[in-house]
Model the fold of this input.
Amino acid sequence: MKAYVLQGGFGLDHIAEVDRPIPTPGRGEVLIRMKAVSLNARDIGVIDGFYNPELKEPLIPVSDGVGEIVALGENAGRFRMGERVSAIFTQSWKSGEATQENWVTTLGSPLQGLLAEYVVLPEEGLVRVPQHLSDVEAATLPCAGVTAWHAIVEEGKVKAGDTVVVQGTGGVSLFALQFAKLQGAKVIVTSSSNEKLARARGLGADYGINYKETAEWDKAILEHTQGKGADHIVDLGGGATLNRSISALKVGGQISIVGILSGASVEGLAIVPAILRRARLQAINVGSRAMFENMNVAIEHHRLYPVIDSEYPFSQAVKALSHLAEGSYFGKIVIRY
Ligand SMILES: NC(=O)c1ccc[n+]([C@@H]2O[C@H](COP(=O)([O-])OP(=O)(O)OC[C@H]3O[C@@H](n4cnc5c(N)ncnc54)[C@H](OP(=O)(O)O)[C@@H]3O)[C@@H](O)[C@H]2O)c1
Done:
C-alpha cells in the first residue's frame, strides 16, 4: 500500500510517498481501507515541528478521515465488515472527563496518522459515519467538527437567542457557526475577507466583521449588541484575540479557548475586564467518542453538511498540505483516495 510519511526533518519538503505492507489487525482491532482524509491547521503544526519538536520519525501525518472496514481482528465485534467508520481524534477518550494519559493517544502525532491507503486501529477508537454524508464530507468531522460541538453544545450549552461569535472562516469556525445556528443562536463571524463574510452569511451567519478593516472588532460586537456583548465566543486566534474576546463578552458569558492562530500566549491578560464580566474561560481539547456520537446524531437529524473548500486526489496529498499551509480557504480541504 501507499502511505505518506514525515521523515528526515520537519517541513513539507520532508513528506515522502512510501510503499508499506498492508497491516494486519490484532485482537480488538480492525483493518480500514481509507476513503478520504481532511486537513486541520494542526497538521501543518505537526509537520513543521511546532507541536512536538521531539516527534518520532517516520510519522504518517493527518488525524481525520473516513474508511471502510475490510478485516476484523480477533474478538472485534463492534462493527461489521464494509461499515464506514471515522477514527476519533483522541483514541483513548471514550466519555466523561479526559485524563492526562488521553493526550498521548492523538492520531497524526504522537500516534501514527491516517494518510495511508490502509490503517489498523482499535475498534474502540471508531465511530459510525452519518449516513447522508459522502466520504469527503464525513472525513471533516473528527477534529474540527467535534471541537466545535464540544465548545458550542457540550460545554457552551448555547441556547436559542444567545449571541455567539466565531473567529475566521476555517474548519472549527464554520462548524461552530453551523452548530450555533442549530441551537437557535445569532452568530457573528469575523474574517479577514469580505467575500468570505458574504459566504458565511449564506450559511446563516447574522452579522460579519472584517477584522483587518476593523481592528477593534470587540467594539463592533459591543455596538452590534447594544453594549451588552456576546454570550459565547469561540476564541480561535489566541494570542492576538483573547483580550478582545474578553472585552466583547457579556457579563456571565463564556469564552471557549480553542485556537492559537495568532499566537500561543497572551501578553497582559485582561484580568480586570474578565472579572467585571464574570467571564467563564473554558479551554477545549477536541472531544470524546461520546461527544462525537452525540454530534453525529444531530448532524443526521438536521441533515447538516460540512463546508468543503477543495478536494485533492491521494496522489496530490502534498499539494493539498501546501494549500493548507498557504492559508487561503473557506472550510475544509479534503484528500480523497
Ligand atoms: N483546542 C482544540 O481542541 C483545537 C481543535 C481544533 C483546532 N484547534 C486550533 O484552532 C485553530 C483553528 O483551527 P482550524 O483547523 O479551524 O484552522 P483553519 O481551518 O486553518 O482556519 C484558519 C482560518 O482562521 C482565520 N484566522 C487566522 N488568523 C486569525 C486571527 N488572527 N483572528 C481571527 N481569525 C483568524 C482565517 O479566517 P479568514 O480567512 O476568514 O480570516 C483562516 O482562514 C487553530 O489554532 C488550531 O490549532 C484547536
In short: Residues 40-42, 143-144, 147, 167-173, 190-193, 196, 211, 236-237, 240-241, 258-262, 284-286, 327 surround NAP (CB under 6 Å). The mean pLDDT is 97.
